[in-house]
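Checklist before submission:
- one chain only
- standard amino acids only
- sequence pasted in full

Submission:
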Amino acid sequence: MKKYTTINEFMSALDEEQKEQVAFLRAIITGAHPELSEHIKWNSPSYVLAGSDRITFSVRPKYPVAIVLHMGATRPEDKNGTPIMDDSSGLIEWKSDTRGVISFADLNDSKAKASQFTAIIDRWLKIST
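Returned file contents:
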């Protein structure tokens, strides 16, 4: 697997369908907070707020595009703990108290869930690490 060093390299390697979907989701994420910065982490786009990685893409061929919500590497997580944020939408699959995953089957699914996803990202970024 190629190791990406820039967002442009990452985006260029995607097939057209995933490229459109990732671009759509990136626009939602980058528009969520003026101080959010984007870089490559885990070989995918990741978003930092106040020095801590908070949101990271998981994109693999033939799998749904996933967004990982997390609190960076320094905050301990409890895999059996109660999630740090309520999710009435049911979109988040919680892996621990501070890490959840949202999956999108394709661009149409991403668009159908856009308003809920936008609200989740907004709420997630308001939680301090």
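Reviewer check: The chain has one domain: 7-126.
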